[in-house]
Design goal:
22% strand; alpha+beta; 4-stranded antiparallel sheet; 459 residues; 15 helices; globular
C-alpha cells in the first residue's frame, strides 16, 4: 500500500479531523465525578460510532464503572496485530475561575508558538487518541483497509484510578492479546524531539501514624519528660537519605540495574538543560544522588519522597501543644526489578527501628506497582523510531519517564505483550490544570506519524 496518498489525505482532511476532535472535547467525560456518568457513556458511544463508521467492529463494553470501548479491524494475512490504547475520560476542571473560557467549549487559539487547541482533554488524552484514530481513517479512506490488523482499546477511568481495568483485561484477555500494545499518552522530549518511552518507574505509596501519649499534652507541663511523636517522626524521615542523597532503607538498591552505556550515551546526546529545568521552578541544584546525572535521577534511578507530614496544632496563632500523634505520607518511584511489596516491608522496618519504647506506629499502603522496561529489540521499536525521525526531521529518541503509567505493566503481566509508548504532548500543555491545550502542529504531525509507523511496521 502506497503511503504518500495517505499523508496527502491527512493534510487535506485536517479541518474535518479538527471538527471531530472538537465534538469529542465538548463531551464533559469527567470520570471521577458521578454527576458526569452519563457524559462518560456519551463519550464512549461517540467513539464507538466513529470507529464503526470506518468499518471497525466496535462496541461499548459495560463495567462496574465507566464503559470500555473495544474495536477490531482485520488487516492482511501475515501482518502484525497492534493494540492501540488511549483514554476518553478527563480530569475535573476545578478551579473553574482560572479558566479563560468554558473548559468544554473548545477553541483553536493563536499563541506565540503557533496555533493551539484549547479545552479540557485536548492533550490528555482525547487529542492524543484521535491522532491514531485519524491515521486509521486516512488509510481506510485511501486504500479501503489498514495495512495491518488493529485493535483499539479505550478506557473511561484512567483519571480516576482505573478500578475496572484489571478485571476487564483479565476477563477479556484472549480478545485483547496482540503482538504489541501501543500507548498514546506521553509526549515529546523537551517539547520538540519525537520520543519513544522505554522505561517507566513504578510506584509505592505509604502513609503512617506514630502515636505516643494517650492525649495531647501541655508542652510546659510535659515537655522534656514526655516523648513527642513529631520529633520521632522527623528523625525517622530525616534518616531515609544520607548526605549524598542516597536512600538508606535496607536492601533498597538490591534490584536496581545500572544504565546500559548505549542508552546513557543517547541520553547525554539529548543535551538536557537541567539548569533551566530546575530554574523554571525556582531551584538551581540537583538534590538526588550526587554521582548521577539529572536525567538519570529522573528516568532510571529510584526515589523516596516525603509528600506530607503533619500533627499537633497547625491553625492560626499559636498553641503550645505536645501532640499525641504524628502523620506522614511517603512515596517511592521504583526502577528495574525492585519489588514494591518487599520494599514496603523494608520501609516499615526502617521506621519501626526509629521508634522509642513509648511510641507505636500504624501503616496504611496506598498502591504498589513495579517499574516497566520495554525491550527495544522488538523490530517495531526501530521501525517506529525511523518513522518518527522521517516525519519530524529530528532524530527520534528512546527516553525514560519519571512518572508511572501502570497500563504498560498490565499489558505485560496480564496479556503477556510488550508496550510501546509514543505521544505528541508538550511540556506546557497544562494537562490536569486550567486552560489545557494541545499544539495544533503536534496533532497534525501526530496523525502523520502514526500513518508512517503503520506503513513501516506492516511492511
Amino acid at each position: 500500500m502506497n503511503l504518500q496518498p495517505v499523508l496527502d489525505r491527512i493534510d487535506t482532511d485536517l479541518p474535518a479531523a479538527l471538527d471531530r476532535l472538537m465534538d469529542l472535547l465538548r463531551i464533559p467525560s469527567i470520570s471521577t465525578d458521578p454527576a458526569f456518568k452519563g457524559d462518560c457513556d456519551r463519550a464512549a458511544d461517540w467513539l464507538v460510532a466513529d470507529l464503526a463508521s470506518m468499518g471497525f467492529d466496535a462496541r461499548k463494553c459495560p463495567t462496574p464503572g465507566h464503559p470500555m470501548v473495544v474495536a477490531h479491524h482485520k488487516g492482511p494475512a501475515g501482518t502484525p496485530n497492534l493494540l492501540f490504547y488511549g483514554h476518553y475520560d478527563v480530569q475535573p476542571v476545578d478551579p473553574l475561575t482560572l479558566w479563560h473560557r468554558d473548559p468544554f467549549d473548545p477553541e483553536i487559539q493563536d499563541e506565540a508558538g503557533g496555533k493551539v487547541i484549547r479545552g479540557r482533554g485536548a492533550a490528555d488524552d482525547k487529542g492524543q487518541l484521535m491522532t491514531f484514530v485519524e491515521a486509521f481513517r486516512a488509510w481506510i479512506a485511501v486504500h479501503g483497509a489498514l495495512p495491518c490488523s488493529i485493535t483499539v482499546f479505550l478506557e473511561g477511568e484512567e483519571e480516576s484510578g482505573s478500578p475496572s481495568l484489571i478485571p476487564f483485561m483479565q476477563q477479556n484477555a484472549d480478545e485483547l492479546r496482540c503482538d504489541l500494545a501501543v500507548i498514546c499518552d506521553t509526549g515529546l522530549f523537551d517539547s520538540r524531539v519525537p520520543a519513544i518511552t522505554t522505561m517507566l518507574r513504578g510506584l509505592l505509596g505509604e502513609e503512617f501514624t506514630i502515636r505516643g501519649p494517650n492525649k495531647d499534652l501541655h508542652s510546659g507541663s510535659f515537655g522534656g519528660a514526655a516523648i513527642n511523636p513529631l520529633r520521632v517522626m522527623a528523625r525517622a524521615l530525616a534518616s531515609l537519605h544520607d548526605e549524598t542523597g542516597r536512600i538508606t532503607v535496607q536492601g533498597f538498591y538490591d534490584d536496581v540495574p545500572e544504565l546500559p552505556e548505549g542508552l546513557r550515551a543517547q541520553w547525554q546526546g539529548l543535551a538536557f538543560d537541567h539548569t533551566k529545568f530546575l530554574g523554571d521552578v525556582g531551584l538551581s541544584v540537583p538534590a538526588g544522588e550526587q554521582d548521577r546525572t539529572p536525567l538519570e535521577m529522573l528516568w532510571s534511578r529510584p526515589t523516596c519522597e516525603i509528600n506530607g507530614m503533619w500533627g499537633g496544632y497547625t491553625g492560626a496563632g499559636f498553641k503550645t501543644v505536645l501532640p499525641s500523634e504524628a502523620h506522614a505520607k511517603v512515596s517511592f518511584r521504583l526502577v528495574g526489578q525492585q519489588d514494591p511489596f518487599k520494599l514496603r516491608e523494608a520501609f516499615r522496618d526502617h521506621i519501626r527501628a526509629h521508634l522509642p519504647a513509648d511510641c507505636t506506629v500504624e501503616f496504611h499502603g496506598h498502591g504498589a506497582a513495579p517499574a516497566s522496561v520495554m525491550p527495544v529489540d522488538d523490530a517495531a521499536f526501530e521501525q517506529s523510531r525511523a518513522a518518527l525521525t522521517e516525519e519530524w526531521g529530528i532524530p527520534a529518541a528512546y527516553i525514560g519517564c519519571g512518572g508511572s503509567i501502570p497500563i504498560a505493566g498490565y499489558f505485560r503481566d496480564i496479556l503477556g505483550m510488550n508496550a510501546m509508548l509514543i505521544g505528541f504532548g508538550k511540556d506546557d500543555d497544562q494537562i490536569h490544570s486550567p486552560n489545557e491545550k494541545y499544539d495544533l502542529e503536534c496533532f497534525h504531525k501526530g496523525i502523520r506519524s502514526w500513518a508512517r509507523i503503520l506503513a513501516r511496521v506492516a511492511a
